[in-house]
């Protein structure tokens, strides 16, 4: 029992220390009413939008955690078109809606970012327009996407982050 407690403490300390060694992320969604497609399917738009923005914010935070301590990654999302399109379905209970994911409805994210060090010096900044027209073309992507509603958007952000930050470190 004592070994389990010691191991639990060691894991907790390791997790806390890795958080302390990370950059912070600040994420803003500017004028979301103007976004290309963040339409809810069979749920309240406000709840869907809150979950969507929370999921993307957490992902930006996990990416920023890979950057040096004391630095800040500030993101302003200016447009978002999540994977798929909303279409009506008709059945015994009447009309409902579902998000259809196929090859012509790919994710798009537009944002600007500013990456600063602990002194506030701007290390990098730019406007970014991401899209992945081949997002759904593998069986692995189709399988994995069922586990995460933001799978394709996160993969798009991962690729941007790796191209932008990890090649420079």
Summarize the structure.
This protein has 169 residues and is an alpha+beta fold. 37% of the residues lie in helices and 29% in strands. The N terminus is likely disordered.
Structure description:
- Helix content is 37%, strand content 29%.
- The protein is elongated, with a radius of gyration of 19 Å.
- It has 169 residues and is α+β, with helices and mostly antiparallel strands.
- It has helices spanning 2-20, 45-64, 139-145, 151-166, and strands at residues 24-29, 72-81, 85-91, 94-100, 108-116, 122-131.
- The strands form 2 sheets. Strands 1-2-5-6 form a 4-stranded mixed β-sheet, with helices on one face. A two-stranded antiparallel ribbon has the order 3-4.
Helix-strand makeup class = alpha+beta
The end-to-end distance, rounded to whole angstroms, is 42 Å
Q: Radius of gyration, rounded?
A: 19 Å
- Spell the H/E element sequence: HEHEEEEEHH
Q: Major beta sheet, specifics?
A: 4 strands, mixed
Mean pLDDT: 79
Number of helices: 4
In terms of DSSP E residues, the strand content is: 25-35%
Q: What attributes does this structure have?
A:
two-stranded antiparallel sheet; single chain; disordered N terminus; four-stranded mixed β-sheet; 169 residues; alpha+beta
Question: Topology of this structure?
Answer:
Layout: H1 2-20, E1 24-29, H2 45-64, E2 72-81, E3 85-91, E4 94-100, E5 108-116, E6 122-131, H3 139-145, H4 151-166
Parallel strand pairs: 1-2
Antiparallel strand pairs: 2-5, 3-4, 5-6
Helix pairs in contact: 2-4
């Amino acid at each position: 029992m004592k070994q389990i407690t010691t191991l639990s403490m060691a894991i907790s300390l390791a997790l806390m220390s890795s958080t302390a060694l990370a950059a912070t992320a600040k994420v803003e969604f500017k004028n979301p009413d103007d976004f290309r497609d963040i339409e809810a399917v069979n749920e309240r738009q406000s709840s869907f939008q809150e979950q969507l923005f929370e999921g993307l914010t957490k992902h930006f935070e996990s990416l920023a955690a890979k950057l040096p301590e004391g630095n800040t990654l500030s993101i302003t999302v200016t447009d978002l078109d999540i994977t798929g399109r909303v279409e009506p379905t008709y059945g015994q209970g009447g009309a409902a809606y579902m998000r259809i994911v196929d090859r012509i409805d790919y994710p798009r994210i537009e944002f600007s970012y500013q990456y600063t060090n602990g002194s506030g010096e701007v290390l990098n900044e730019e406007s970014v327009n991401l899209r992945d027209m081949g997002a759904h073309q593998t069986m692995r992507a189709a399988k994995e996407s069922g586990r995460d509603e933001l799978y394709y958007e996160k993969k798009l952000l991962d690729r941007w982050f790796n191209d932008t930050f990890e090649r420079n470190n």
